[in-house]
């Protein structure tokens, strides 16, 4: 029979993973006698309605961050289920695979208030020993192992700030780039939905981030004429302001209106002007032209 093992399970969304997660792993390895620590990214948290980074992206980030940790394995069991997986399911899965002496389950202190709501909590409580990583000065009951962590970081706030100081160095640039694009896509969807709703035609979006252009994104739409363009401009001004956007400048010539949002440029053009100036081909050829010049 295989030797009995002490294992630890650290599950979560890791959306994104941050230095607080690294601290937890380091402290567990140094303070708790374990043979294996399994980090398990969720497909989706059972208590949440959505994720921001796709599951395979989060899995890849974790593999990179912890690749040199000998006792750490990144387990893809939950993301392979393509659904929300409860902790008790993953615990039972690991118990079938390993001859376990002590099974430690690592949770954040913010989970304590809802711990009793977890599926089959009483059974789970008998199967594992809880290790609680402190957060927000939440008091940890004396009957649970208290793991004091200095980094008080929220993944939710980190998605908004994308502060590189709190991201693991091995994936920090990749994480920032990923979430910035997600934020940009959300803004683009909002802007194009306004244009579409107000009868703008043939909407095209160009990603210019890798093309050494002066904005990240260009949006082009055909208007039904000068009056429609002026009306569409007013709608965009009003609706984007409500959504927190700031229009830095507007150039109007009736048949061609340009809105500058800093990193997004919107062109509203009559059919005649759009055909005449053919901005699409210019944008498509821009990168090739730059490479030729260099």
Describe this entry's structure for a reader.
- With 294 residues, the chain is an alpha/beta fold.
- It folds into two domains: 166 residues, Rossmann fold, CATH 3.40.50; 110 residues, Beta Polymerase, domain 2 (2-Layer Sandwich).
- A six-stranded parallel beta sheet has the order 3-2-1-4-5-6, with helices on both faces. A five-stranded mixed beta sheet has the order 7-8-11-10-9, with helices on both faces.
- Strand 9 and strand 10 form a beta hairpin.
- Helix 7 packs across helix 8.
- It starts with a strand and ends with a helix.
Provide tags for this entry:
294 residues, alpha/beta, Rossmann fold, Beta Polymerase, domain 2, 2 domains, 6-stranded parallel sheet, 5-stranded mixed sheet, 21% strand
Please write out the topology.
Blueprint: E1 5-12, H1 19-31, E2 36-41, H2 55-65, E3 72-74, H3 77-80, H4 87-97, E4 100-108, H5 121-127, E5 129-133, E6 145-147, H6 155-161, H7 172-197, E7 201-207, E8 217-222, H8 226-242, E9 249-252, E10 256-260, E11 264-269, H9 271-277, H10 279-293
Parallel strand pairs: 1-2, 1-4, 2-3, 4-5, 5-6, 8-11
Antiparallel strand pairs: 7-8, 9-10, 10-11
Helix pairs in contact: 7-8
